[in-house]
Amino acid sequence: RRQYQGALFRTAASLGLWFFALLAYLVSGFGPRPFVGISLVVVLVQLFNGTFLTLLTKSRSPRFFDLAGLCSNLAETILYTAIIHFTGGVEAGFLAPIYCVLVAYLGMVAPWRYPVIMVLWSMVCFDSLVFLEYLDVLPHQSPLLGAPPGYTYPAINQLMTVLTVDAILGLMAFVSINIAGRLRSARARLRKQNMELEARVAGRTVELTAVNHSLRTSLEEQRRAEAALRESEEKYRGILENLEDGYWEADTGGRLTLVNDAMARLLGSDPAAPLGQRLKDWLDADTAAGVDATLDQIRRTREPARSLEWTLIPKDSRRRQVETSAGPILGPFGQVAGFRGIARDVTFRNQTQMELRQTRDFLQSIVHSSTDAIATVDLDGLVVYASPKCAELTGYPPEEFLGRRVMDFYGRGKEDAIGLRDALAQTGEIRDYELQLRCKNGQLLDISMSASYLRSGNGRIEGFLGMYRDITQSKKLEAQLQFAQKIEALGTLAGGLAHDFNNLLMAIQGQVSLLLLRSDPGQPEYPLLKSIENQVQSGARLTAQLLGYARKGQYEVHPHDLGRLIRRTAETFGRARKDITLEMNFAAVSTVVEGDEGQLEQVLLNLFVNAGDAMPGGGRLTIRTTLVQHEAIQSPLFQPDPGPYVQVDVTDTGTGMTPDVMERIFDPFFTTKEMGRGTGLGLASAYGIIKAHKGYIQAESTPDQGSTFRFYLPASNRPAYAAAQAAGPLLTGTETILMVDDEDVILDVSADLLEELGYRVLTARDGRAALEKYQAHQSEIDLVILDMIMPHLSGGEVFDRLKERNPGLRVILSSGYSLNGQAREILGRGCDGFIQKPFNLEQLSRKVRDVLDAPKAC
Fold it and tell me: Helix/strand/coil (H, E, C) string of 98-166?
């Protein structure tokens, strides 16, 4: 900052010198050349100052600032000296004030040695100038202002000028150094005082901050303590006032000092009325006589007295029996300073117990003939009465019921008691509340309970009446029903898994079909492709079992002779297991049923294989068919529809099954076979297939005595179906087909298969796109192959909308599910065919030609 101030000071001084020279030029005979020289000096000084200020912006070093200022002054001194000499001669005396200005500047902004250097340098410059003029080495304009031509300035005068200027410079240096020293000393003292003042202010600030923090902490702790105290007072006041039991305090003389609202209600007054009165004044004579003795005992032993029976005489003159306990209030030195106690109104309880005993005989005469167990319980949960049926159900004799807590007989004890209490409190009665009773032998019985309050003549609740019905057997039947429902739910899951898996197999099957079509049977890759195709078919058979379990596996439903089907399947099985003796006993009447031949064969084969696994060392397998009516079918698991049924019994002499295995035999993926010998889908798929054919299946087994699987299928009065011959080679065509599927890979591979067969193919990836594509190419499309399960619009919705636009349009449904209810409904609305995923090229070619070549309906 001082360097900037010095530069500005030099600028102002040089400008002042220029104005002085201008005034001398205008007023006196000051020559033009001195004025021009001074003007050039002023201009160069401004340039020097600009350069100097630019250098100051490049560095922040104080030493650099001082050196730069010194060098600038030295350079300006030479400049001033040279210019004024060459323009004015003796007028170089003007250099004295300029030198003084520069020395004064350095004295203010630089260390003391810098003004000394500047003075010595100025003396050297000025004395050298005068000496060189004296020797006439340096020419000049004139020796003196206004002197005649040829005038010579005396040497003594020149010497006096030099001495005078040197003296002035020395004096100026002394004054500058002295003033600068004083200024620096003053600035140092000022800085020291400022630092001391700042230190004192900072210390005082720290002290004030600490005091302020301590004060705030104290105030905050005080506020928290007051809040905690208020909260504690409100908490205990709330507890005291919300107690359902009466609370009282008395001094050592037995005078009441505090009662809560509940105690005031017992006394029939407001809380302030009893204060100051003796406790025994509120008791009847018999009770009051023992109060003093009780308080004296508490005073001596400092132990509380419990289970005291007192009779209160409140102001409303309605006597109340209370059950109370009393204890001491201890003072700060352990002395008894008073008494406190809790009083509970038991008037109603005592009256209820008395009235319950009066009605006990009446209840006994009513309930002895009941088939349900009946018991009454008082308000404390104690059994007051138990009918003989209670003893019959639980094995406890009647005398072991009375006086015991009813929760002791509940399966879950207190938890059941609380649940019953809460349920009864909601409506005042319970109907068909299920719980378990614990028998004397530890067995748990499933019970359906109905309960209600027992009330006195004036409507007061005296206790509870409960009626208990044994539903153990019905619960077992319900568990069996839940099992059937679980099988239904698992079937839905299995069907979805099979659908998605069939979509995956469809993509593989389609690609393999294309590769087989484009490959020569002689190529080494051809057997590998056939192996892949065979594995795909194995996967399809696995999904067929899942679909069978899910009751989504009916492919082609026709009337079939079940006896012929059983004989053919049994003979096939018998050739594989010659150690098993087959006995077949078929009904003499017709045993035709409606169903899918392959699915029914799968059921029979699964049952035969399961029986064979149960007879590893051989045995006897008996198959019997019978025609029965629905009335003859007895099972707690199902209620058959009216009509005739074909009954099939498959009985083996194998190892049989334990009850826990019997509970899970129809669960999917459950198997008792070792790893790698079974998937656990055989009986599960058999169950699903029978259910899908509107039939019923059940099993009976005893360990080491064999098993019997029995199923029923609705009988048909139609003649048996004759299977059609297998189709021939690939069938091709040139029509235009719209292929609709939401799976991109299935859509692409199906389009490739159709194009290989010669068809022109349009594709759509969902129902909306299919409708738009058909709208754009309606006149060109001959057939639509429509996926049944799609987002946004299902296959059924798309089919209906297509039929609205063109009733004669030919449509084939395609699905990973089989021909189940939904697909069959669409076929019933006019759909022309159905193809099951995964399908190969041959199946696709036959199905497409069958639909395209079929005559159109009128």
Answer: HHHHHHHHHHHHCCCHHHHHHHHHHHHHHHHHHHHHHCCCCCCCCCCCCCCCCCCCCHHHHHHHHHHHH
Rounded Cα distance, 763 and 740, in Å: 6
Whether residue 838 is preceded by a cis peptide bond, meaning omega within 30 degrees of 0, is: yes
Question: What's the half-sphere exposure (Cβ side, CA atoms, 13 Å) at 722?
Answer: 1
Q: Residue 272 to residues 237, 316, 661, 743: CA-CA distances in angstroms?
A: 16, 16, 74, 85
Query: To 5 degrees, how large is the angle CA 237–CA 242–CA 245?
Result: 115
* Count of Cβ atoms closer than 10 Å to residue 746 Cβ: 23
pLDDT in tens, 1-21: 555 666 666 677 667 767 766
For the cut 50, the answer to whether the pLDDT of residue 725 exceeds it is no
Residue located via tokens 């300006």: 76
Contact 342, 364 (CB under 8 A): no
Strand partners, 340: 249, 327
**Measured torsion, CA atoms of residues 78, 84, 90, 95, in degrees rounded to the nearest 10:** -60
DSSP-derived 3-state class of residue 33: helix
The tokens describing 93, both together, are: 């005396």
pLDDT of residue 553: 47
Q: Report yes or no: 439 and 395 within 8 Å, Cβ to Cβ.
A: yes
CA 171 to centroid of chain Cα atoms: 91
The mean pLDDT of the chain is 76
What residues pair up with 650 in beta bridges, in sequence order? 623, 709
For residue 465, list its beta bridge partners: 376, 452
Return all residues near 44 (Cβ < 8 A) that are at least 6 apart: 76, 79, 83
Q: CB neighbours (10 Å) of residue 784?
A: 25
The CA-atom distances, in angstroms, between 814 and each of 506, 722, 819, 832 are 11, 26, 10, 11
Give dist(CA 270, CA 26) in Å, integer.
118
Q: In what order do the strands lie in the sheet with 736-740?
A: 760-764, 736-740, 783-787, 810-815, 833-836
Q: Token pair for residue 13?
A: 């001084």
What confidence tens digit (pLDDT) does each residue in 618-647 have? 899 999 999 999 888 877 667 788 999 999
Confidence of residue 663 (pLDDT cuts 50, 70, 90): confident
The one-letter code for the residue type at 253 is G
The gap between the terminal CA atoms of the chain, to the nearest Å, is 111
E strand segments, 471-606: 557-561, 580-585, 592-596
- What are the backbone angles phi and psi of residue 205, rounded to the nearest 5°? -65, -40
pLDDT score at 411 = 84
> What would the pLDDT profile of 676-720 be if each residue is shown by its tens digit?
344 456 677 788 788 888 888 888 888 888 899 999 999 988 888
Backbone angles phi, psi at 264, to 5 degrees: -60, -40
Q: Which of 739, 792, 734 is nearest to 764 (CA)?
A: 739
3-state class of 344 per DSSP?
Answer: strand
**Class of residue 7 by CB neighbours under 10 A (exposed 0-12, middle 13-18, buried 19+):** buried
| CA angle centred on 203, ends 200 and 206, rounded to 5° | 150
Residue 116 CA to residue 740 CA, distance in Å, equals 106
Are the C-beta atoms of 789 and 815 separated by less than 8 Å?
yes
Q: Is 814 helix (H, G, I), strand (E, B) or coil?
A: strand
Q: Are 829 and 800 spatial neighbours (Cβ–Cβ below 8 Å)?
A: yes
pTM over 0.90: no
Q: What is the Cα–Cα distance from 134 to 128, expressed in whole angstroms?
A: 10
The 3 state secondary structure assigned to 256-285 is EEEECHHHHHHHCCCCCCCCCCEHHHHECH
Token code pair at residue 302:
């400092």
Using CA atoms, how far apart are residues 399 and 383, in angstroms rounded to an integer? 10
Q: How far apart are CA 122 and CA 132, in angstroms?
A: 15
